[in-house]
Amino acid sequence: MATFLYKLGRLAFRRRWLMALLWVVIFVGAGLAASSAPTPPADTFSMPGTESQKAFDLLEKKFPDASADGASARVVVRAPAGEKISAPAQKDQVSALIAQLKKSPQVVSVSDPFTTKAVSKDGSTAYAIATYEVPATKVDDRAHDALDDALAKARADGLTAEAGGDAVKIDAAVSGKGEQIGILISALVLILTFGSVIAAGMPLLTALIGVGVGISAITALGSTLGLSGTTSTLAMMLGLAVGIDYALFIVSRYRSELTEGRDRADAAGRAVGTAGSAVIFAGLTVIVALAGLAVVNVPMLTKMGLAAAGTVAIAVLIALTLVPALLGFAPVKVLRRRDRARFSGKPLSERRQRKAAKRAEKDARRKPNLGSRWAGYVLRHPVAVLLLAVVGLGAVAVPAASLELGLPGEGTMAPDTTQRKAYDMLSESFGAGFNGPLMITVEGKDAAVAAGTIGKELAEQSGVATVTPATVNEAGDTAILNVVPATGPTDGATEDLVRHLRSLSDGFQADTGAEVLVTGQTAMFIDFSKTLDDALLPYLALVVGLAFLLLMVVFRSVLVPLKAALGFLLSVAAALGAVVAVFQWGWLADVFGIDQPSPIMSTMPIFMIGVVFGLAMDYEVFLVTRMREAYVHGARPDEAVVTGFRYSGRVVAAAAAIMISVFSGFIVENNDFVKMIGFGLAVAVLFDAFIVRMTIVPALFALLGKGAWWLPRWLDRLLPNLDIEGEKLSRTAPAGRVAPPRRERELVD
Fold first, then answer.
1. Is the separation of the CB atoms in 234 and 286 below 8 Å?
2. Across all residues in the chain, what is the average pLDDT?
3. 363: how many CB neighbours lie within 10 A of its CB?
4. What are the residues whose beta carbons fall under 8 Å from the beta carbon of 160, sequence distance 6 or more?
5. Phi/psi at 269 (nearest 5 deg)?
6. Which DSSP string do the residues of 173-224 spell out, in sequence order?
7. Average pLDDT of the segment spanning 584-590
8. Contact between 312 and 648 (Cβ < 8 Å)
9. What are the CA-CA distances from residue 543 to residues 294, 514, 533 (Å)?
10. Which of 651, 738, 728, 625 lies closest to 262, judged by CA?
11. Would you say 519 and 441 are in contact if contact means Cβ atoms under 8 Å apart?
12. 114-128, 343-357, 458-472: lowest mean pLDDT where?
């Protein structure tokens, strides 16, 4: 592999105009395809194989008129304290509100609460349903403004008026501020790392090109593959982060090869042949983790994972081809200004020669860099460092034991939003379970009779507040019953009630001959959480298993991949603990702009496992491959660790800082899911890169010694030798590298 990538890097460097033109054509072509593509479909949520989804599919078939996808707004009004909403004055105000809503753009109908008996028992509160002719994603600003005006008029009349439902505007779109903040901080980190604006700009430019191609491709294929607009959020977040990191490693290795005496084309080839091999396997681990989301069997997660995996694959291709091409345009300017004269190819004046000689002598006497010194310290105190790091991460992971999962809804919104106020008003006046009714479908020959019998039995069940009369379709073979629980949608008792009602379905079928299914938003949330719980272990086994095999091929070791996987589990547990402490318990809520502490979103653990595992293996590959490279070239195990940190420690630290800055930028977004994902991934990278990979890993290498690279002979014969370390390049490329083993020995000894 290293030989092939070496040739690819040299080709891209020498044919830079052709390679750059090729990527420009791809970028422009993807942009044109996206601009002419149909509007992406709206978000659809389905869970094949669950009872909730089976019931929804039945309703769509049996009640085609009722399954229209028009948006709705539930307008809740309350009379002033001590008065009734049905009093003449208040009733006139409610009628005026309904009349104004009927005149609003895109509104089809508005129910009258006094006709539909949507008035609370105490007579203080009522609600009306406004139905729109378009889905929630197509409700325009005129309709939103008209609803806001109607609510404001009712409030001016003395009523308390709020609204919930999917037709109410939610300011939770991704604004782009997160990307801008991440790019700005990444630019500063790159400039500090490279000491060159040109070198810092290359990773940013190539990452933006990769994200542009990936997002444009997602948009262009949106209508064909059913990719909604939100599918690209994860792809944008990951594509930007890994795109910068992968290019960073290629540019850094090129600079290293150039300063060790390689000519420019050879340095570009060797950079792609060595660091490029690490980029490929690091990218493969991320792609495996993201594509593995398909085992969850939730189409929305599968699409998000595959879209993000495609963007990561584009980032890998750009790092291997476009980055060396850009290096060809500025082969010397990527170096620090003080080093450029030595590699410009121009004859130096006598004065500059003396300065260069003094600088070379100074460089030869200089102390090892921070990475080498840190590795040397860890190698001298492995047990103390290991215990401190493990205990520290374990302490941060403690809150994860209190993890509560849920899905976002109006009940978890900020208290000052109209949706949350409407939710609370309905809960207070109509009961805690009113916001989460269960829908019971009854399918049989005489559905009306069966539904009447079943409704009576349901009303007698513990935990059921009310059961509405049955609604029967025209064919008479399917009926719907609405069951209002006595407890709220997120209450554990409601989940127990759903399980209990489903356990009665066999008895109902035996008595009436009708099939009974329990669905509704609350039941679907419960099924969704169970689906994720059931898929978690298979997903973890698949991702870790495949990545373990990949890393075994890369490092030709059993223990190195094993400790990489165990370190990942430790870092992801600590990251989940931090997420629980901040978003669920409310610690530092004001700092991170969290209005309402709430249960952690059900998708969060599986997202973190997938994404963090891929990113964790990135740093493992980039750091340990350089150790492996030194080891196979004859260095002692402890010397190999110091060499790895000498050449890769600073770059890995910079890459991690860039990742953290990119993810942290999304914390400023208003979308709770994006905010939580950004925070979780940022702290996970912080823990994994700086504590696990750069602290625990060298400590374990110090304790294991040569045993870290142990591989059974029979397994060594079975595994393909892909030459990740570039050992064959010594026979296909000019020599010139001078290793500094004495410094490493001094640090170790």
1. no
2. 83
3. 10
4. 77, 78, 79, 80, 425
5. -65, -45
6. S--SHHHHHHHHHHHHHHHHHHS-HHHHHHHHHHHHHHHHHHHHHHHHTHHH
7. 85
8. no
9. 11, 43, 16
10. 738
11. yes
12. 343-357
Q: Are 275 and 252 in contact (CB under 8 A)?
A: yes
**Total structural domains in the chain?**
3
Structure confidence at residue 65 (pLDDT): 64
- CATH number of the domain bearing residue 99: 3.30.70
Question: Is 489 in the same domain as 539?
Answer: no
Judge if 327 and 461 occupy the same domain.
Answer: no
Q: Residue 439's domain is classified under what CATH number?
A: 3.30.70.360
Asked if 689 contacts 652 with a C-beta cutoff of 8 angstroms, the reply is: yes
Tell me the β-bridge partners of 518: 440
Taking the C-alpha atoms of residue 561 and residue 549, their distance in angstroms, rounded to an integer, is: 8
User: What amino acid is encoded at 708 in this protein?
Assistant: A
Asked if 576 contacts 605 with a C-beta cutoff of 8 angstroms, the reply is yes
Does residue 317 lie within any of the structural domains?
Answer: yes
60 lies in a domain?
no
Buried b (16+ CB within 10 A) or exposed e, 638-664: bbbbbbbbbbbbbbbbbbbbbbbbbbb
**Neighbouring C-beta atoms of residue 367, cutoff 10 Å:** 10
Kind and range of the H or E element at 492?
helix 492-503
Listed in sequence order, the residues at least 6 apart from 608 whose beta carbon sits closer than 8 Å to its beta carbon are 572, 575, 576, 579, 680, 681, 684
- In this structure, the answer to whether residues 610 and 674 fall within a common structural domain is yes
Beta-bridge partner residues of 405: 600
Q: Which long-range contacts (CB under 8 A, 24 or more apart) does 399-402 make?
A: 399/577, 399/578, 399/580, 399/581, 399/584, 399/585, 400/573, 400/574, 400/576, 400/577, 400/580, 402/580, 402/584, 402/585
The three-state secondary structure class of 601 is: strand
Q: Which residues is 466 bridged to in the sheet?
A: 484
Residue 554, pLDDT > 50, answer: yes
Q: What is the extent of the structural domain holding 255?
A: 2-36+178-341+364-405+526-748
Q: What's the pTM? A: 0.78
| DSSP per residue, 258-308 | HHTT--HHHHHHHHHHHHHHHHHHHHHHHHHHHHGGGGG--HHHHHHHHHH
Rounded to 10 degrees, the C-alpha dihedral 264/265/266/272 comes to 110
The identity of residue 319, as a single letter, is A
Q: How far apart are CA 457 and CA 574, in angstroms?
A: 47
Q: Which of 286-300, 306-320, 719-733 has the lowest mean pLDDT?
A: 719-733
Hey, what are 739's tokens? 């290793």
Q: How far apart are CA 615 and CA 612, in angstroms?
A: 5
Rounded CA-CA distance 310/283 in Å is: 10
Other Cβ atoms less than 10 A from the Cβ of 36: the count is 8
Confidence band of 686 (pLDDT split at 50, 70, 90): very high
SS3 48: coil
Phi, psi (deg, nearest 5) at residue 227 = -95, 115
Q: Computed from CA positions of residues 452, 455, 459, 465, in that sequence, does the dihedral angle turn out positive or negative?
A: negative
